[in-house]
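thoughts on my protein:
***
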Amino acid sequence: MFSSHSSNETNIKLPFSFIFMSMVALMGSQILLLVHGDFIINGQFRIPGIWSAAHLFVLGWALMIAMGSMYQLVPVAFLTPIWSEKFGFIQFGITAIGIFSFAHFLFYDPQKALIPGLITLAGILMFLFQMFMTLRQQTKPNILTLYVGFALLCLLLTIILGITLLYSMKTGIASSYYQPIFKSHLLLGTSGWFTMLIFGFSYKMAPMFSLSHGYSMKPANIVYPFYTGGLAATIVSFFVELPGLLTLGLLLQFIGFAVFIYHISLILKNRVKKKLDRSFMFALLAIVSGGVIHLAAFITALFGIFSKAVGLLLFLYLFLWIAFSIIGYLYKIVPFLWWTAKYSKEIGKKDVPALKDMMNDKAATPVFFGLMLGILGVAASICIGSKILFLTSQILFTAACLIFCYSIAKVITK
């Protein structure tokens, strides 16, 4: 029914469909957070408006971005074509409908969010099936296959646990395990799915954007067992409620992340490109931020205050590590995708713009500063309970997001 694609080049319309739809979700999530500032300042996160904003941000923006990027990067990284582009477009439509309707019902009537949640689940399962059928064509699996495969498994578990939470809210079944399931859902969705995926593709993109050669991949074999072992220990601690096990799990995750930072630094030492682009440096800053947050999580658990700090740590993790990694890489990926699709076959036949002309790297610097100052200001406002600081910082962050979206959209006009 769905024919396989014969080339490693994916139809540019497929990844861009995900990317541009994600921009709508990003702006929607930030506007929702802006109008719910009072609740955020008071530490009231479990309300419909915040749920809707969180899922628009995580599912509508970050997940859709990841899906779109994988449709383009998987064929390049694993030298195998996407199994079926037609299936991919159908999956995009179902996923988009599911996510936006899910966010809608979370806002207006959470009790009726189960059906949209199942539609979202169907779209994600289709994506997982697409990736499984694509990766199984790989002739020689490598360490990147392990990272991406584990990330996809975590995505599946995250969605299953999310649907379980909705079913529990509706029926009361497994209500005594609601908190452990909820915590596992958050951990697998952030540290499992996004972090492992960023780890995997960073090993491909960091050398590419820095023109690095001759580096060793052996540290990646250390990162994987430490980080996944930490995830497993942390999840078990949620159900058995052993503080010592939680501390151990967070320590293992920190060690894994620290080795990843060290490995990236080794890769960069072997680079040919001496002056790194600002957008790539922003992605590197996100990596350092992720390491600092992992260290803070371990220290707070060690001193028994993790439960008090976890809300702020999760907020910083989502933005300073996951979101900023995505934004930094997108500034490099989108121009490359568009230039390759539009101009790569025209080289030598006529004058074409250089890849560096597709995006003004210097103009991105104020956007990065706006994003950084905005999110740090929001975090500070939550700590001190300042509504004025929150509104000012969230407006700054939202404005920076808008400029970021405009910059990405403008690429296709060149």
